[in-house]
């Protein structure tokens, strides 16, 4: 069976469920999503965020935590942590893990699908989250008790950049790819 035949066969096999086809194109990833009873849609995504990333810069983390309502004892510990991000993608499902020696947090989502999120390990709030691609950035808007809350991930100069924002406070974090991966 030729590649094209295999590809067509896989699509027809998966039409009843959700099928995701990926194609490399000029440094970006194009994902074609087939949904039951709906037309095919293409999502143009930038270079992969996947991998293990270690923090190299963390600006205004304490201000961001104050805006979230995190107490002074936890903030004192958190600002000293060396964070690690693990970004995984399984088809159209993303998993982003934030790891440290103190607490870990994991969020799993599908792009452009609103979901309920409990930020246990962070500020322990219930929020409605929506993650979408805006140009080359993965952007999350969170609706809950705090106003103007969310985050943005993107790759620039082979580094993972993250902006965390809440009620006028902006924390910027930069991560380098873990070379032992």
From TrEMBL:
Superkingdom to which the source organism belongs: Eukaryota
SUPFAM superfamilies (UniProt xref): Lipocalins (SSF50814)
Stretches assigned to the Cytosolic fatty-acid binding proteins domain: 51-68
Stretch list, region Disordered: 1-20
Annotated PROSITE patterns: FABP
InterPro entries: Calycin, Fatty_acid-bd, ILBP, Lipocln_cytosolic_FA-bd_dom
Function: Cytosolic CRABPs may regulate the access of retinoic acid to the nuclear retinoic acid receptors.
Name of the protein this chain belongs to: Cellular retinoic acid-binding protein 1
Record organism: Salarias fasciatus
